[in-house]
Amino acid sequence: MKQEFLFSLEGTKRKCSAELVYQPEMFLKVIIKVYASQNVDFKVTIYSNPSFTGFSELMNKDSETLLSEAIERFKQKGAPEQLCEVRKSGINVIYAWSDDA
Length: 101
Prior knowledge:
The chain is an alpha+beta fold and 101 residues long.
């Protein structure tokens, strides 16, 4: 499942997409792509697995709720530190689903 949203970065509103990917009992992640024009500028993954606090509660939520929560988490955390390096290297930055994970 995918959802698009806008995110303010460097003085402009950027188009973003969030895609839910999960394997029950294994992991849950939402891959967020932030675009610059037509190309992906950088990616952030919001991630959880069974070793993280609250994983089983997350797995009981519907897809739309999970996407909305992950988008809010991304907006709360903001763009990755060292954004220039992230862009240059193309690495996928990972944020835990919650601070107590």
